[in-house]
Amino acid sequence: MKLAPWRVELGHLKRIRLLDGVDEPCLRLLQEVFEPCQADAHEVLLTPLEHNHHLYLVLNGQLGVHLDSLDGQQVRAIEAGDCAGEISFMDNLPPSAYVVAVEPTTLLRLHRRSIQLLTRSPQLMQNLAQLLCQRVRLSDRLIINSEQNANVDTLTGSFNRRWLEHIYSRESTRCAFNDKPLSVLMLDVDNFKEYNDKHGHLAGDHALCLVVDTLGRQLRAADSLVRYGGEEFVILLPEMSIEDARNVGERLRSSLEQIRSFQSPIGMLPGVTVSIGVAPMQPADSLENLIQIADNALYRAKASGRNRVCG
Ligand SMILES: Nc1nc2c(ncn2[C@@H]2O[C@H](COP(=O)(O)OP(=O)(O)OP(=O)(O)O)[C@@H](O)[C@H]2O)c(=O)[nH]1
């Protein structure tokens, strides 16, 4: 990064949020130690591969934050008035993310050897604490979002098998502990190969989304609709007896049967039917066991003509 050939003015420091409310004698001290510099577009300021020795204040331009690699999606922009590198500047560990100039950017930077100067202003320390709290909250939100995304099937928006394993371990323990039943439905779209062959794979994708949308609307908040494989779904029904689960299965089956055609982004398409296997959890049943029993019932539903509920 190039040092810029001009002097830092008080006016520059007053544009930075981190320095809001900091008294003038302290700003004058900082004015002497902050260096003006210029980053070219795409220039990398911070990388997890190298120690960072500076706190950066952005006067003009914009920086981008990337988590895993510079090729990955930008997760946050750092605009004029913001600062960058404050965490690695404070804890003297390598940065946890990449920070790169999105466009030519004018900055002020402070070297770690002057870190003591920051402690002269209680207001600055309070601003810094507030900023670090914001960063913690933001990274908590990113963790929650990525956790949620990791549990969701990208085509249909239903849960995936990873979620099923997690939720089964929780719900099976809870239901067994409270002496409540738990049931599972296993669904498979009927003659789906033929549907794909006749209407195209994209039409098949829309039909899978229709299944998830139609079934999802009829389930309770505590139920989990999971895409188990290509055109196979599992529905976990906590606190539900096998009799009630059969009724739910029948209601779901019938609701899809009634949709003769539906509007999709590629035009009108025919509906699909499903075959369903039902299984009740037995004491200490593993998920694999329970799925196997539901799968056997599903096999019987297919063998006896499809578009029916067995088990
Ligand atoms: N469009 C689409 N098709 C998929 C997807 N995943 C799996 N399939 C298709 O689903 C079809 C499943 O076919 P089969 O297992 O032979 O079963 P089926 O034709 O539904 O017959 P039955 O189950 O016996 O009623 C295959 O052709 C797969 O390619 C997907 O995400 N999108």
Q: Main traits of this protein?
A:
311 residues; alpha+beta; Jelly Rolls; Alpha-Beta Plaits; 2 domains; 5-stranded antiparallel sheet; 5-stranded mixed sheet; binds guanosine-5'-triphosphate; cNMP-bd_dom_sf; diguanylate cyclase
Characterize the structure shown.
The structure is a single chain. This protein is an alpha+beta fold and 311 residues long. It has two domains: 2-149, Jelly Rolls (Sandwich), CATH 2.60.120; 161-310, Reverse transcriptase/Diguanylate cyclase domain (Alpha-Beta Plaits). 40% of the residues lie in helices and 24% in strands. It is built from nine helices and 16 strands. It has helices at residues 10-14, 24-33, 86-91, 122-150, 161-177, 192-199, 201-216, 242-257, 287-303; strands spanning 2-3, 35-39, 44-46, 54-60, 63-66, 74-78, 83-84, 98-101, 105-111, 182-189, 224-227, 232-238, 261-264, 267-270, 274-280, 309-310. It has a five-stranded antiparallel beta sheet with strand order 1-2-9-4-7. Strands 11-12-10-15-16 form a five-stranded mixed beta sheet, with helices on both faces. A hairpin with a 4-residue loop joins strand 11 and strand 12 (232-238). Helix 6 packs across helix 7. It is elongated. The model has no long low-confidence stretch (mean pLDDT 94). This is diguanylate cyclase. InterPro entries: cNMP-bd_dom (IPR000595), cNMP-bd_dom_sf (IPR018490), Diguanylate_Cyclase (IPR050469), GGDEF_dom (IPR000160), Nucleotide_cyclase (IPR029787), Rev_trsase/Diguanyl_cyclase (IPR043128), RmlC-like_jellyroll (IPR014710). It is found in: Cell inner membrane. Its cofactor is Mg(2+). One of its GO terms (molecular function) is diguanylate cyclase activity.
